[in-house]
Write a structure and sequence with these properties.
With 264 residues, this protein is an alpha/beta fold. The chain is built from six helices and eleven strands. It folds into two domains: 213 residues, HUPs (Rossmann fold), CATH 3.40.50; 31 residues. Helix 2 links the parallel strand 4 and strand 5. It is elongated, with a radius of gyration of 24 Å. The N and C termini lie far apart (59 Å). Bound molecules: flavin-adenine dinucleotide. The site of flavin-adenine dinucleotide (FAD) has 33 residues, from helix 1, strand 4, helix 3, strand 6 and helix 4.
Length: 264
């Protein structure tokens, strides 16, 4: 099986801090790591390779330092890695990101299965996996908690509200995986040594024959107008009970207040 795993490098914190003035992410002093949910995608690919044979290619779009995430993927057990890095990719929204990855994945054909994390901890849209599937015209299973190969077909078990749904998908196809699918392994010393020596492939816009009107900020149909944390304020009203006699009065007052607010 040839497996492709798109991975994203993200800041090492789920509590992403934003500059209230500029609306951009404050990255200073924050270490970068592989998107935690992508570790589950890598682990899933490694287990499929262990069971059915084949190879795994990790691919990431990002700045040069995203190499570190790809090296970690190699150290965990991926066979090859491609970094998509080009000034022209900067400022991409989820469409432009999906398009860029889809163009690179076309170049990595043929493949059997593309495994994405459910979502990235920074952008948090969960749009990129489905975006790639749509652009490549491939079948998709999201929220996948188990994958098996049965009679040459991918059997994906999806987490749905109150239960599971099992889908059969012809190859090639795309799945996005949830934490329940596996426990990611740690990189081995041998893996780390292999990753250190390995020359990663670096592709720019020309290498993937990208239409420049679909990449980076220019190719992004959405714009971030403002990013802010909503302020939660509560009006609040304190109904005091001074003595036993005023208790019933307080209860009546609360009931009428709740009725007024249409709560009861
Ligand atoms: C107008 C606009 C401008 C933006 N400008 C910038 C910017 O200048 N710099 C910036 O860093 N971000 C920018 N972003 C954010 C950027 O679009 C998202 O980080 C990116 O599209 C991925 O979306 P997400 O984080 O929600 O990933 P999700 O859709 O939540 O990720 C799901 C899965 O898709 C895969 N995936 C996602 N992103 C990548 C990737 N880059 N490489 C490989 N696999 C991936 C992973 O498997 C991941 O688990 C911008 C967004 C908008 C809307």
């Amino acid at each position: 099986m040839r497996l492709i795993v798109p991975i994203k490098q993200v800041p090492e914190t789920s509590n992403v801090k934003m500059d209230p003035e500029t609306g951009t992410m404050l990255r200073e002093g924050v270490e970068s790591i592989i998107n935690p949910l992508d570790l589950y995608a890598i682990e899933t690919a490694i287990r499929l390779k262990e069971n059915y044979g084949g190879e795994i290619v990790a691919v990431s779009m990002g700045p040069i330092n995203s190499k570190e995430a790809l090296k970690e993927a190699i150290a965990m057990g991926c066979d090859d890695a491609v970094l998509l890095s080009d000034k022209l990719f900067a400022g991409a929204d989820t469409f432009a990101t999906s398009y860029t990855l889809a163009k690179a994945i076309e170049r990595l054909k043929p493949f059997d299965l593309l495994i994405c994390g459910e979502r990235a901890t920074d952008g948090d849209t969960a749009q990129v996996g489905p975006g790639i599937a749509a652009l490549l015209g491939l079948p998709l299973a999201t929220f996948t908690s188990n994958i098996e190969l049965e009679d040459g077909v991918i059997k994906a078990t999806r987490l749905i509200e109150g239960g599971y749904e099992v889908l059969s998908l012809p190859r090639p196809c795309v799945v996005t995986v949830v934490k329940e699918i596996s426990d990611p392994r740690l990189p081995t010393l041998r893996g780390k040594q292999r990753a250190k020596k390995m020359e990663l492939k670096m592709w720019g816009a020309q290498d993937i024959e990208a239409d420049t009107s679909n990449i980076g900020l220019n190719g992004s149909p959405t714009r971030v107008i403002k990013i802010f944390t909503p302020k939660v304020t509560r009006e609040g009203k304190i109904v005091e009970v001074k003595d036993e006699r005023s208790l019933q009065q307080a209860v009546d007052e609360i009931i009428s207040l709740l009725k007024e607010k249409l709560v009861i």
